[in-house]
């Protein structure tokens, strides 16, 4: 961890993932919580996001197909998209606050229940996409 964390801080790639997982040690040493396909897509900003698909020439536009926002990326989908507002509000009510990219991991690691709630939310919206 002593060499990994500084390398992580100085890396030029994976900045979205770094925004979410700023402390590698906390992430690696968590006591629960497996990752899965949809979580990996959301945490890497790769997958079924129109911005990414447009970049690799698999979509005609980077716009969100749910709300027509200019950029459909992981940040937009998980935290901002009006198309998922009801699901967001349900999650925020259950966990007690609105999530941000900077606090999602801390919230997930608070206890298994918050991990499960956030994981279910991400699974639900990613599966819907």
Can you put this structure into words, describing what you see?
The chain has 129 residues and is mainly α. 56% of the residues lie in helices and 0% in strands. It is built from nine helices and no strands. α7 (85-95) packs antiparallel against α9 (112-128). It is globular, with a radius of gyration of 15 Å. It starts with a helix and ends with a helix. The mean pLDDT is 96.
**Percentage of β-strand residues:** under 5%
Based on the structure, what is the oligomeric state of the protein chains? Answer: single chain
Mean of the pLDDT scores? 96
Distance between the termini: 35 Å
Shape: globular
Low-confidence stretches: none
Q: Structural class, please?
A: mainly alpha
Number of helices: 9
Largest sheet: none
Rg over alpha carbons: 15 Å
User: Order of helices and strands, N to C?
Assistant: HHHHHHHHH
- Write down how many β-strands occur, each being a DSSP E stretch of 2 or more residues: 0
Percent helix, as a range, is 55-70%
Organism: Macrosiphum euphorbiae
Protein name: Reverse transcriptase zinc-binding domain-containing protein
């Amino acid at each position: 961890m002593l060499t990994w964390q500084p390398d992580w801080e100085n890396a030029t790639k994976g900045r979205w993932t770094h925004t979410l997982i700023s402390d590698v040690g906390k992430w690696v040493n968590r006591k629960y919580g497996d990752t899965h396909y949809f979580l990996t897509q959301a945490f890497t900003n790769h997958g079924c996001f129109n911005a990414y698909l447009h970049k690799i020439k698999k979509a005609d536009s980077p716009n969100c197909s749910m709300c027509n926002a200019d950029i459909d990326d992981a940040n937009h989908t998980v935290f901002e998209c009006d198309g998922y507002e009801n699901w967001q509000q349900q999650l925020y009510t259950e966990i007690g606050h609105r999530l941000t990219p900077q606090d999602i991991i801390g919230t997930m690691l608070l206890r298994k229940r918050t991990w499960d709630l956030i994981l279910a939310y991400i699974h639900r919206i990613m599966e819907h996409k």
